[in-house]
Every structure is written in structure tokens, then in C-alpha cells.
Write a structure and sequence with these properties.
The complex is a heterodimer of chains A (112) and B (112). With 112 residues, chain A is mainly beta. Helix content of chain A is 0%, strand content 57%. Chain A contains no helices and eleven strands. In chain A, strands 2, 4, 5, 9, 10 and 11 form a six-stranded mixed β-sheet that branches. In chain A, a hairpin with a 2-residue loop joins strand 6 and strand 7. In chain B, strand 4 (31-37) and strand 5 form a beta hairpin. Chain B starts with a strand and ends with a strand. In chain B, strands 2, 4, 5, 6, 9, 10 and 11 form a seven-stranded mixed β-sheet that branches. Chain B is built from no helices and eleven strands. With 112 residues, chain B is mainly β. The chains are: A mainly beta (112), B mainly beta (112).
Chain lengths: 112, 112
Amino acid sequence: KQEVTQIPAALSVPEGENLVLNCSFTDSAIYNLQWFRQDPGKGLTSLLLIQSSQREQTSGRLNASLDKSSGRSTLYIAASQPGDSATYLCAVHPSNDYKLSFGAGTTVTVRA
Amino acid sequence: DGGITQSPKYLFRKEGQNVTLSCEQNLNHDAMYWYRQDPGQGLRLIYYSQIVNDFQKGDIAEGYSVSREKKESFPLTVTSAQKNPTAFYLCASSSYTFNEQFFGPGTRLTVL
């Protein structure tokens, strides 16, 4: 069974600092990996989707990398802003299962 | 605007009642999903539908039921058999099973 871990569970940084969020998974046989953002009491917003054949994906200040062999993905957010404060979740799509496996998330606070 | 709508935003259930959560999408997606989110836990899959008139149980289907009579609609019924239904419920859809998932705003269910 695919296990997805996100460490740390919470992170606080001053405005302007770059954010580095980690996601690890136990089974490297994946179809894709998706990063989401969740604001308190809201649904999930899809940030980036990385296919298993890709090494990274970029959107604006966000960059996500994928290393399947080591079971790791990293989400980088450049020049953080208070509006980046939210919980970030990663989810892995195993190649042999229709179900996404979610991590518990990292809650980020960006201090003004 | 294309997207996923869920209603109601808040729902209160008395002991022994069945309640139905609505999920509608106008993205023309084939696949739809129901997840449950509890504090400190990752999202858990309740039910999944790949096409109209077909659905499969997820990891925590006991006490829940679904139907998929129309492509755009995937309602979830929380029955009285679900002993601990207080949670945040999220509906999602994707164009096909392994593609990027998009989420609705969620329904918070509380048992009185």
C-alpha cells in the first residue's frame, strides 16, 4: 500500500523567504503526483501535476520536482508572501490503482 | 465558469437520519470522487465513479451510498449506519481516472 508522508507538519517563515515543502512516498511505481493548496474551511486547489516521466513542473513562483527512484517530491515557493499561508498537500497516483494517496499536509504560515 | 459545486455548505444531522450531499460539475469530466477529511488526517476515499451508472467503493464506504445517473451529478448519502459522520466532505472530478483531480468547496457535516 502506498504511504505518503509530509514533513514538517507545520512551518513558519518570514515574508520573502523561499519555501521548501517535502513529500515522500513508499512505492516508486506511480502514474503522477499532484500538489494542492487548501485554505481553512475550503476545498483543495490544484497547484501542479507532475507526470511520472517528468522531473519538474513550474507555474509562476511555484516549482515542483519529482525523484521517483528515491520516492520524493519537493515543492518550492519563491519569495513567499502572507497570501501563501495555507496547508499544502501532496497526493500520489499509483500506476496500478485508481485511488490517490494523500499526505496529511504541511501547514505554512508566512509572517509579514 | 467551469467548476464543481457542492451543497449545502453546512449540514446538521440528527441521530438516525439519512442526509444527502450534492455534487455537480460542468467540466464534462467522466470520473467523480467523494472524500472525507478529518482533522490531522489525510483525505480518505469514500466512493469513486468512472462513468455514468458505475461506481466502486473506496477505503471507507461503510455507512455511505452514492448514485451516478447523470454525468454531471454524483450525490452522496450519509446513512444512519455511519456511526461517526461528523467531518468535512469533498467532491472531486477528473477528465479520466488517472488525470488531474479538481475539487469542490466542500460540505461540513455535523451530527447533533
